[in-house]
Amino acid sequence: MGAGAGHLVPAPEHHLVDSDLQRLTLSRRHLMGLAVSATLTPAAAVAAPAAGQPTAPDNATPPPSYGLGQPVAAHPYGQPSRHQRGLERRALKGLSPVPQNSASFTPLQGLFGIITPSGLHYERHHSGWIDPDPRQHHLMISGAEPALINKPMLFSVDDLLRLPAVSRMHFLECSGNTGMERQRAVAPTVQYSHGLLSCSEFTGVPLRLLLERCGVDFKRARYVLAEGADAAALTRTIPMELVESGEVMVAYGQNGEYLRPENGFPLRLVVPGVQGVSWVKWLRRIEVGEAPYNTRDEALKYIDLMPDGTHRQYTSLQEVKSVILSPSGGQTLGRQGFYAITGVAWSGRGKIRGVDVSMDGGRSWRSAQLTGAVLDKCLTRFHCDWVWDGNEAILQSRAVDEGGHVQPTHTALRAARGTGSIYHNNAIQSWGVEQSGEVRNVQVV
Ligand SMILES: Nc1nc2c(c(=O)[nH]1)N[C@H]1C(S)=C(S)[C@@H](COP(=O)(O)O)O[C@H]1N2
Ligand SMILES: [Mo]
After folding, report:
1. pLDDT tens for each residue of 160-207
2. Phi and psi angles of residue 211, each rounded to the nearest 5 degrees, phi first
3. Cβ–Cβ contacts within 10 Å for residue 16, how many?
4. Which of 26, 154, 234, 354 is the most buried (most CB within 10 A)?
5. Nearest ligand by distance to the CA of 251
6. Across residues 325-351, what is the average pLDDT?
7. CA 1, CA 253: separation in Å to the nearest integer?
8. Who wins on pLDDT, 269 or 94?
9. pLDDT per residue over 56-95, tens digit each?
10. What whole-number distance in Å separates Cα of residue 228 and Cα of residue 203?
11. How many C-beta neighbours within 10 Å does residue 36 have?
């Protein structure tokens, strides 16, 4: 399968395999046309032909259908096109010896806009995913001491569904995302470098509302402990200010339907802007207390070793960050000419103010266009036009949020945090474009 003129060849996992092509009973000419569009990667889709290039006859549109298509409800639950192959979450071999305590990555390089389809949301489980019966599942809200709460309560999922709901779009990022890239460029594709990142519309009940119903003493109870129903009994402390802001939500909905079991069905905590581990899945218990809980998941893990030998604990915000998704690692530029560089930016502190893009490894910058919605603690899509002259280039993006926080270089991040921690790497990502058109993960220091 050749690259169309001016087109990007996607990373290997997005090629149709030969046996797929053989099953298509079309003429070779149509096959060629299909093969290019059939990969359905954004890379192939967004790269416009070089200006003034006539459309190649090989890309001619196939004739329309003259017969009937498939009947309605052939798939009661719709599926992606059979031509969209390879757009899957993927696990890294060797990341963990146990697949129940591991992670799978979202294929960011293949997504449009800002929403992650639920079936492609990344996964991070500490003891495997479970699928609790929503008729049995409950959320218990109690106090570390009886005096902190007037009326401890047990909510069924039905109880929660009857309360006024809110729906909000937010990104969810594991604090270990890009952790492998702390020292040097490792991951071959953006799926593996940045794919512990997804974005959904979540629907649920603000936790503040539930705590108010329980008569929590907000003066004394300044912390909340959230616990999951999985065997890991994952527990995290959430500061009460976040709950009082109204942003923290007990969610049951994701992208218009119930949460997927992998993502916490029937209930999960949504803590916008905060690292993934605090978004407790299969949420079964909330306790209010006067002090942070210092649980296993916040004492032995999710701490950052600083250059002076101390640990940063309770680091929770996901700082301003961005990444170019196309062109990105593993893809190949087919020929010199026009490319629409595109990617996503996000900040746990609020909205994205702007994104700059560099084609020369950070020597000069151009401002990208923010396209689509610019929402609070949500992925924001950016685009920047580029005419590749066929020479080596290093593509970078640098986001700034509404508070003026700027995404750092690796050098700046190391100066501030040293090299001992793996969490919270929000450094500028570089993609090296070679003369051959191959795009590789490189690190610019
Ligand atoms: N109960 C429970 N909640 C959990 C986890 C878990 O293993 N168990 N993993 C956490 C971590 S580390 C992350 S990054 C997110 C991942 O959410 P996702 O699997 O929906 O992407 O869930 C968090 N909540
Ligand atoms: Mo995580």
Report:
1. 999 999 999 999 999 999 999 988 999 999 999 999 999 999 999 999
2. -65, -35
3. 18
4. 234
5. 1
6. 96
7. 41
8. 269
9. 556 678 888 999 999 999 999 999 999 888 899 999 877 8
10. 19
11. 21
CA distance 248 to 354: 26
- Beta strand 102-105 with 90-91 is antiparallel
Sequence length of the chain is 445
| Domain annotation for the chain: domains and CATH numbers | 8-58 (no CATH), 118-312 (3.90.420.10), 321-442 (2.60.40.650)
Query: What single letter denotes the amino acid at residue 23?
Result: R
Q: Which atom of ligand 1 is nearest to the CA of 283?
A: 1
- Taking residues 349-361, report their average pLDDT: 98
Average pLDDT (346-375) is: 98
For ligand 1, mutation pick of 234, 238, 268 (most atoms within 8 Å of CB) = 234
Choosing from 95, 124, 286 the residue with most ligand 1 atoms within 8 A of its CB, the one to mutate for a pocket test is: 124
- For residue 171, give both structure tokens: 């990104």
- The per-residue pLDDT for 54 is 52
Residues 6+ apart with CB under 8 A from 254: 118, 121, 200, 201, 202, 203, 260, 263
End-to-end CA gap in the chain: 36
How many angstroms does the Cα of residue 125 sit away from the middle of ligand 1?
5
Contact at 8 Å (CB) between 86 and 1? no
Q: pLDDT tens across 31-62, in order?
A: 222 232 333 333 333 344 444 455 555 667 88
Question: From the alpha carbon of 227, which atom of ligand 1 is closest?
Answer: 1
Q: How far is the CA of 176 from the centre of ligand 1 (A)?
A: 12
Q: Which two tokens stand for residue 277?
A: 């581990």
Positive/negative CA dihedral, 158, 159, 165, 168 = negative
CA of 45 to the centre of ligand 1 (A): 32
The average pLDDT across 251-266 equals 98
SS3 (DSSP) at 8: strand
Ligand number with the minimum distance to the CA of 104 = 1
